[in-house]
Amino acid sequence: MKGKIILVMAVMTPALFAGNLQAQRPLTWQEALDITLGNNPALKQAQYQVQEKQALKQAARSLYLPQADLNATYVRLSDDIHLDLTPVRDAITPLYGTLGKYGVFSGVPNPDPATQQIMPILPDDLSTSIIRQKMLEGLQNVQNGEWDQIIQKKEFATLQASVNWTLYAGGRVRTANRVAELQNQESEWKKKQVSGDLTAELAQRYYGVNLALQAVKVREMVLDGMMRHLNDATRMHEQGLIAKAELLNAKVYASQAQRELDKAQRELETAREALRNTLGWQGSEIPMPVSPLFYVDSMPPVTYFLDQARQKNPQLRQVELISNQAKAGEKVSFAAFLPALGVKGSYDIANKDLSEQAPEWMVAAGLQWTLFDGTARMKKLQASKMKTHQVQEVQKKAEADINTMIVKLYNECNMYLEQIHQIDNDLAFTDELVRVREKAFEEELASGTEVTDARLLQAKTRIERLQAMYGFDTTLARLFQFAGIPEQFTSWQLSDKAKTGSL
């Protein structure tokens, strides 16, 4: 009897104590979801994209405002800029000389206040003398003047402030702000899509570990039953109650149960590693799901999920926003046919060797209207319209695909519920079958094979029930994902209607 006990413990030890070698961290579904949404790089990337689009949206608003610049310029020309008026000097010199010598003048007002009343107009000879003198003085000034002047040195520098303000651009500014807003909304829906994808992925891996844990428990129960049957068969063989073949049969099935348990444990390790990846788990502890597999007795009508998807599915909302962006692109293409109006101004803050003739400040208003550029604008407008049609067709296809997927997932959920309800009935039959076969074996009315077959059928039924519950949970998570309401998965999991069942 001592040998039998040692045999049982030697076989059971790997199954019972393998998971106790490393510390475990219990995790509820909500805790696992919070960790995933807080650690996952894909969601962080989506959040950074949202922040990027928000910054671009704010940047687009500045298009409504004037642009002020400070410009520093250094210029070096090949030569100084001259203004040569020598031809003018040469043209007027003869005139001054002739009038200064031979000109006859009259009607010159008397400049002397004392005699002005008596003689308001100077005599002709005196008028001629005075005017000739002035003309000769002017001739002297003309001949001595600098008629070739530098109006701008070849090297100069300026520091200017300038302002440019687009008042009208055919709707381009307004459309640019509209596109920036649409892209910001698109990034928000992209983030929601990533969050929904992660929720569905977490459901698959979190409950995958749960399923693997339950499968290990089932295999441990099978192994325990097989070992008890092996002990009974050994005892009965020693008493001469059964043939050696029955004993060998019990040993074979016990060994098979051990292999199935080892396999289940390996699958558990694989499932745990997948869960660690989704969680972004960095700790040395093993994450241990504690929220059980669950199901509900009935589903709401499929129209509920279809209606939710039309309003909240992230992919549909993104396609809709892309369609609106394509329509905005049409407006931008049409704006090329309209004029652009703007004002600008500049002020000379400081300069070095800048011409004194250069203005200190300047303001201007300008209008630009492209009247002809071949067919470029027209073709671009046609291309933007074709882009809109493309996106609209993509939108129709996406809506049809989403609806089809929702109906498919909805039917799969109901299929799993039907399986669970049917298996619940089968479990009662298999439990009774094991009890009857074990009793019959003890009374030598049944063979060992019949007992092991009953136990294997019982284990198969229990695992099928767990798999059906796992299938329901993962499919339900995907259904909520496509409906755009992944947060409701947690609500269902915590609701009073959720049933967990037992082994």
Oligomer: single chain
Number of helices: 12
Major sheet: 4 strands, antiparallel
CATH class of the largest domain: Mainly Alpha
Strand order of the largest sheet: 2-5-7-8
What is the CATH superfamily classification of the largest domain? Outer membrane efflux proteins (OEP)
Q: How big is the Rg?
A: 48 Å
Supply the key terms:
single chain, 503 residues, 2 domains, alpha+beta, disordered N terminus, 8 strands, Outer membrane efflux proteins (OEP), 12 helices, four-stranded antiparallel β-sheet
Give the SSE layout.
Layout: H1 2-17, E1 24-27, H2 29-39, H3 41-61, E2 67-76, E3 81-84, H4 86-102, H5 124-144, E4 148-152, E5 155-168, H6 172-238, H7 244-279, E6 286-289, H8 302-312, H9 314-335, E7 340-352, E8 361-368, H10 376-442, H11 448-483, H12 487-494
Describe the structure.
- The protein has 503 residues and is α+β, with helices and mostly antiparallel strands.
- The protein folds into two domains: 2-67 and 170-494, Up-down Bundle (Outer membrane efflux proteins (OEP)); 86-146.
- It contains twelve helices and eight strands.
- It has helices spanning 2-17, 29-39, 41-61, 86-102, 124-144, 172-238, 244-279, 302-312, 314-335, 376-442, 448-483, 487-494, and strands spanning 24-27, 67-76, 81-84, 148-152, 155-168, 286-289, 340-352, 361-368.
- The strands form three sheets. The chain has a four-stranded antiparallel β-sheet, with no helix packed on it. Strands 1-6 form a two-stranded parallel sheet. Strands 3-4 form a two-stranded antiparallel sheet.
- α2 packs across α6.
- It is rod-shaped and about 170 Å long.
